[in-house]
């Protein structure tokens, strides 16, 4: 399946464990690396913009990569222009990313802004790349409710990967130690967002109260004791099985579940 | 002269006397507008026989104050209430708040309604809420959801997966209506993607996963959800479900507006939609399956049931009884004691509807029941119930769907 000339870059970030908040490989980025390894094996380039001395980056190397490239940036710098510059000159056909970062702003805008800056098409929720030929890639997109959609997209393109993509392989300790992290000094661009925005610990969201706007006591009583019943459902009695089946079929077609 | 109150003692006497031959005639006059009148001392009088209660089976008027009244009069009142909501009209809006609802299945979801509620808050009394709808829809309640202006863009170019085309349309709307804010649902079903694409073409940094908007500031989740990001409200806002209360106090116009130049909106799509891929419905997790065929105690022929699920392309589910009997595996059990399902269409075959089961399907949109007992709780819950033998109906349904598929193939060939 994999084209010999296909070049793929996966963008990775540093994640955070949901319970302990320790730095780890980001879940979706690891899936993007896995997809890249499926496509081109260890010819995959893995790119990170940030602190090259972060220990958890080595978890990506432990997935079987010889090297990881880092564009060195301090915390709070804007990764977008740096990555866009790098990708413009990298001559790759496919760029893979996670859907959103686990630390920092985590707006999930990076793939969209990169696609806009480079003028490349963007596929969201990439589940699999089926084939790459003649300047086009045929890919599977993951939809909610376990569904899939086949798309044909022009190369080069950016694909963002969510939790529907194949699960990432384990990270092994030895390759993680042996792997090489290469540095590149880049221009530091300040992220303007932090001039006006501030991070704060997440507050629990208020629970929505069930407000009963009944005007009379009888209405309030009815609202408090109501059973879960649909109002005015249609009941067909004494019909032939064919007529009943037709009524059901009509509803199924209206709802668009018969494919 | 007009303010002298004149009484008709003869008519009043007839109205009091149920045995008078003209009583029924007087009674009909007392209904509706004549149910209230000014008494001789200027006090408003009500006719309790006309205004309250309903006619019982023996023709006697019954007033039931327990709250479980089933008579026609009460239902009619409920219908009137929707139209009695005050109509809010904005002729010359000072500014526009644009909303792009998801419209899953062609109808406003609760997420969409919350978003329209937020838009209403931002619009206040002088602004107008503009809802942008792509393709066909089946929603009739845009007016009570808080939509002042409705812009529908239909055409084959918006069918299927067409994010680039839709972004171009949104940019045209941006140019024509100059909305102060754009609100989209931050959902996986389309709004999150469309909003981010649109914001990227505007070179805006949208506020994402927003759950609170207050006094020009908004708070949204950041990172993996352990932090919040507080910032001034930007132009494009992608909001979570329950970001605001939905509209319930008033009715709005939902006046149709059009886009000036629709024909120049065509773009050359770089992403081509090649259609949905057949997914094995048995491998879709039941909690997120879209269409579930569920069997219970009333199913006798389980082979037929499995064949029906296969032909319909439905994920299989079962009630607790069917699982306990060993007809279905435990992980297929639907209900509070099994899996809580979120299917859009739930077809229950031979399930009477225990409370736990009804709880488990409370998130389902359309429920269809096939049952022999018309009085069971599942029939009360269902939107469509067929009171018939399940085997015969399933067999007829299989035949119908197979005939439909064959007909489709012949058309395609």
UniProtKB/TrEMBL annotation, chain A:
Record keywords, A-Z: Electron transport, Transport
Regions crossing the membrane: none
Domain Electron transfer flavoprotein alpha/beta-subunit N-terminal: 15-190
Coiled-coil stretches: none
Classification via Gene3D superfamilies: HUPs
Domain of life: Bacteria
InterPro entries reported for this sequence: ETF_a/b_N, ETF_b, Rossmann-like_a/b/a_fold
Family recorded in the similarity comment: Belongs to the ETF beta-subunit/FixA family.
Name listed for the protein in its UniProt record: Electron transfer flavoprotein alpha/beta-subunit N-terminal domain-containing protein
Species this protein is from: Pseudomonas asuensis
UniProtKB/TrEMBL annotation, chain B:
Highest taxon above the source species: Bacteria
Domain named Electron transfer flavoprotein alpha/beta-subunit N-terminal: residues: 97-273
Keywords: Electron transport, Transport
Keyword Kinase: no
SMART domains named in the record: ETF
One Pfam family it belongs to: ETF
Gene3D superfamilies referenced in this protein's UniProt entry, alphabetically: HUPs, TPP-binding domain
Xref: InterPro entries: DHS-like_NAD/FAD-binding_dom, ETF_a/b_N, ETF_a/FixB, ETF_asu_C, Rossmann-like_a/b/a_fold
Family note: Belongs to the ETF alpha-subunit/FixB family.
Entry protein name: Electron transfer flavoprotein subunit alpha
Organism annotation: Pseudomonas asuensis
């Amino acid at each position: 399946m994999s084209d010999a000339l296909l070049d793929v870059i996966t963008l990775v970030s540093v994640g955070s464990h949901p319970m302990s908040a320790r730095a780890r490989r980001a879940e979706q980025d690891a899936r993007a690396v896995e997809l890249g390894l499926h496509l081109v094996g260890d010819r995959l380039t893995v790119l990170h913009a940030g602190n090259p001395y972060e220990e958890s980056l080595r978890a990506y190397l432990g997935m079987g990569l010889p090297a990881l490239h880092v564009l060195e940036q301090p915390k709070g710098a804007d990764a977008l222009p740096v990555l866009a510059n790098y990708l413009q000159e990298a001559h790759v056909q496919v760029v893979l990313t996670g859907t959103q970062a686990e630390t920092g702003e985590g707006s999930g805008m990076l793939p969209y802004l990169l696609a806009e800056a480079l003028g490349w098409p963007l596929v969201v929720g990439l589940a699999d790349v089926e084939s790459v030929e003649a300047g086009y890639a045929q890919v599977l997109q993951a939809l909610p409710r376990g569904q899939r959609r086949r798309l044909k997209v022009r190369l080069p393109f950016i694909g963002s990967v969510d939790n529907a993509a194949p699960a990432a392989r384990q990270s092994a300790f030895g390759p993680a130690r042996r792997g090489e992290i290469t540095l590149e000094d880049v221009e530091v661009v300040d992220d303007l967002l932090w001039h006006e925005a501030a991070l704060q610990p997440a507050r629990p969201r208020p629970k929505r109260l069930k407000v009963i706007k009944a005007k009379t006591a009888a209405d309030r009583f009815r609202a408090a004791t109501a059973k879960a019943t649909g109002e005015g459902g249609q009941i067909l009695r004494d019909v032939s099985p064919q007529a009943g089946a037709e009524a059901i079929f009509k509803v199924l077609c209206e709802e668009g579940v018969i494919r | 002269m007009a303010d002298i109150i004149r009484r008709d003692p003869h008519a009043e006497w007839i109205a009091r006397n149920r045995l008078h031959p003209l009583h029924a005639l007087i009674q009909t006059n007392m209904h509706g507008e004549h149910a209230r009148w000014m008494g001789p001392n200027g006090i408003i009088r009500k006719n309790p026989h006309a205004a309250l209660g309903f006619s019982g089976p023996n023709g006697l008027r019954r007033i039931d104050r327990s709250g479980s009244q089933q008579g026609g009069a009460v239902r009619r009142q409920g219908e009137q209430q929707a139209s009695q909501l005050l109509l809010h009209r904005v002729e010359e809006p000072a500014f526009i708040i644009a909303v792009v609802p998801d419209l899953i299945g062609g109808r406003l979801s609760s997420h969409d309604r919350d978003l329209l509620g937020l838009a209403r808050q931002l619009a206040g009394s002088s602004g107008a809420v503009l809802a942008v709808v792509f393709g066909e829809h089946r929603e009739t309640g845009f007016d009570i959801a808080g939509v002042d202006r409705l812009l529908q863009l239909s055409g084959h170019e918006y069918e299927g997966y067409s994010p680039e085309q839709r972004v171009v349309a949104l940019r045209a709307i941006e140019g024509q209506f100059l909305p102060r804010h754009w609100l989209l649902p931050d959902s996986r079903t389309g709004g999150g993607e469309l909003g981010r694409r649109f914001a990227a073409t505007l070179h805006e940094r949208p506020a994402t996963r927003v759950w609170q908007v207050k006094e020009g500031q908004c708070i949204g989740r950041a990172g993996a959800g352990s932090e919040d990001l507080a910032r001034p409200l930007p132009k494009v806002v992608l909001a979570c479900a329950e970001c605001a209360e939905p509209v319930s106090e008033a009715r709005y116009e939902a006046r149709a507006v059009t886009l000036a130049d629709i024909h120049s909106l065509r773009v050359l799509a770089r992403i081509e939609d090649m259609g949905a891929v057949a997914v094995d419905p048995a491998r879709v997790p039941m909690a997120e399956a879209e269409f579930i065929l569920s069997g219970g105690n009333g199913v006798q022929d389980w082979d037929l049931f499995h064949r029906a699920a296969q032909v319909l392309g439905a994920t299989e589910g079962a009630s607790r009884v069917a699982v306990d009997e060993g007809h279905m595996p435990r992980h297929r059990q639907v209900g509070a004691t099994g899996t809580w399902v979120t299917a859009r269409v739930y077809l229950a075959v031979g399930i009477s509807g225990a409370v736990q089961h009804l709880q488990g399907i409370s998130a389902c949109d359309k429920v269809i029941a096939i049952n022999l007992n018309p009085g069971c709780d599942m029939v009360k819950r269902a939107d469509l119930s067929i009171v018939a033998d399940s085997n015969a109906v399933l067999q007829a349904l299989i035949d119908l769907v197979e005939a439909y598929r064959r007909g489709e193939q012949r058309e395609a060939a």
